[in-house]
Amino acid sequence: MKAFPGKFASAATLLILLALTLASCGSEASGSGPKSVTIHLGYFPNITHAVALVGVERGTFKQAFGPDVTLDTKTFNAGPSLIEALFAGDIDIGYVGPNPAINGYVKSKGSALRIIAGASSGGASLIVRPGAHIQSARDLNGKKIASPELGGTQDIALRHYLQQQGLKTADKGGTVQVIPTKNPDIVTLFKQGQLDGAWVPEPWASTLVQQDNGQVFLDERSLWPGHQFVTTNVVVRKQFLDQHPDLVEKFLQAHVDTVQYIKSNLDSTKTIVNSEIKRLTGKALQPSIIDSSFKNLDITYDPLAQSLYQSADSAFALGFLGSSKPDLHGIYELKPLNAVLSSKKLAPIAES
Question: Family, per the entry (predicted)?
């Protein structure tokens, strides 16, 4: 009698194994087609992120990926927040300024991200309030100047400029108060007279000028050779790049297509960008602000690597990148971009 349970157990085991084998075969059959993938794309509702705004609205990214890929989008106020989301795996591809990209690369020891393209150059200015009586750099002493976020691209640019002018920020024992503040709040505080100035990207710079009578104290382009410096890069989560190089190249195809569309269709681009800004922020911009913003920047897929390296030097000098100068060798992965450019018979982009 004791032998029977063993026989029944063996038979049951065989049946279970057979069922699992059949299920496995069914899974492989059903999974033989393309697997569904969700791509998480991050960007800002800023004109410096026009490529993202236009690419999303026109469906260019979604069309490039095809039906088996879901595109999930999320907007941010400034770069450090986007990089944190990338670290958490919540963002796969993002439009972000050079300094947050540098920070993310350094903090992760090169494991978290790669820069795969540029998106915009220029489009950042120091705007001052008329009543603050700021006529020269020395007049910034004792003033309150805002930037969008601590450690962000404009924040580093502002602090570096002050350092170059021999001025110290309050946290370093000086008198200039640098106040990281969200862009919409900067507009409110500027209007109320609680800020003396702000180093901000477009469209916020033009908004302060046209709506709040701000004055352009400094167009950041004047500080750079050839008036070109990277404002927005495209970064990819390294793990996503390793797992889905084909999707990254498809994204870059759409990215380059969108850059070319913008350059050839500026009027329709302005309409699309304003519509997207209204959708994302609840408020459209005046057409004159849109016009001014686009005059102050250049849309490009070139990451302008030399300007990023210089930004890294500035961030290091300010104490944002640790005690030893970081090695940024490897921060760029431009092979996918150059493959796209080659297919379009366009000149390749160098990393230096």
Answer: Belongs to the bacterial solute-binding protein SsuA/TauA family.
